[in-house]
């Protein structure tokens, strides 16, 4: 997996790298410190799986930068990581073509969940936009209960195999994922279901009427 990490604060980049290393067994991280270097590195590395960038960096206005990146690299997923908790900034970033808006104040597991959702082909909407009538989440998700529990399509696949009693290594092999990525998905599933282990997850899935039984 190759990720372009763009932020004008070197110490922050170093901290985020430790989080990103949990996404896969091998993560190649490319650095950029402003919008010009981000564009240059993206052009030099056309095989990028994801770009994680600060909103406000030198060289260009934040939303202008997002729009220009989307224009130059329309197929490369872009997630914004920012200290701005402005709902307007979040709405404009997503409207300009970002596939996710992650707050720098978020716990590491929230960042990982957001990135996995985008890597799975979805869009991550931050909690600051909850209740925003102009916001919709087009990511492929399935409502699991009236309590609003939702999992991505990939997490549903992992849950189905998990309920079959398969270990993470076998789940990774069947879904063509790294074992580390499977562990992150399992942790996200446990959080969504409010459980701490596989037995509790099976009970919760049955209680919720989740149609991912072993023979489903």
Note down, in words, how this protein is organized.
It contains 9 helices and 7 strands; from the N terminus they run E-H-E-H-E-H-E-H-E-H-E-E-H-H-H-H. By secondary structure, it is of the alpha/beta class. The strands form 2 sheets. It has a 5-stranded parallel beta sheet with strand order 2-1-3-4-5, sandwiched between helices. Strands 6-7 form a two-stranded antiparallel ribbon. The longest helix has 15 residues. The chain is globular, with a radius of gyration of 18 Å. About 7% of the residues have low confidence.
Order of helices and strands: EHEHEHEHEHEEHHHH
The CATH architecture term of the largest domain is: 3-Layer(aba) Sandwich
Radius of gyration: 18 Å
- CATH class placement of the largest domain: Alpha Beta
Label the overall shape.
globular
* pLDDT averaged over residues: 83
* CATH homology superfamily name of the largest domain: Response regulator
> Can you give the helix content as a percent range?
40-55%
Major beta-sheet overview: 5 strands, parallel
Distance between the termini: 31 Å
CATH topology of the largest domain: Rossmann fold
Fraction in beta strands? 5-15%
Widest beta sheet: strand line-up: 2-1-3-4-5
Number of domains: 2
Low-confidence stretches: 133-147
| Derived structural class | alpha/beta
Total number of β-strand segments? 7
């Amino acid at each position: 997996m190759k990720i372009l990490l763009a932020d004008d604060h070197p110490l922050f980049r170093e901290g985020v790298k430790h989080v990103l290393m949990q996404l896969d067994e091998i993560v190649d991280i490319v650095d950029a410190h402003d919008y010009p270097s981000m564009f240059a590195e993206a052009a030099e590395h056309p095989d990028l799986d994801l770009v994680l960038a600060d909103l406000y960096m030198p060289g260009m206005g934040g939303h202008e930068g997002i729009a220009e990146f989307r224009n130059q690299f329309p197929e490369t997923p872009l997630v914004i990581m920012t200290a701005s908790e402005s709902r307007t900034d979040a709405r404009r970033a997503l409207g300009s073509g970002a596939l996710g808006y992650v707050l720098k104040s978020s716990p590491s597991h929230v960042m990982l969940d957001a990135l996995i959702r985008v890597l799975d082909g979805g869009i991550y909407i931050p909690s600051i936009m909850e209740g925003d009538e102009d916001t919709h989440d087009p990511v492929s998700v399935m409502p699991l209960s009236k309590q609003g529990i939702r999992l991505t399509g990939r997490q549903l696949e992992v849950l189905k195999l998990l309920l079959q009693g398969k270990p993470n290594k076998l789940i990774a092999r069947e879904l063509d994922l790294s074992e580390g990525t499977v562990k992150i998905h399992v942790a996200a599933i446990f959080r969504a279901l409010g459980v701490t282990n596989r037995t509790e997850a099976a009970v919760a899935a049955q209680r919720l009427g989740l149609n991912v039984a072993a023979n489903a």
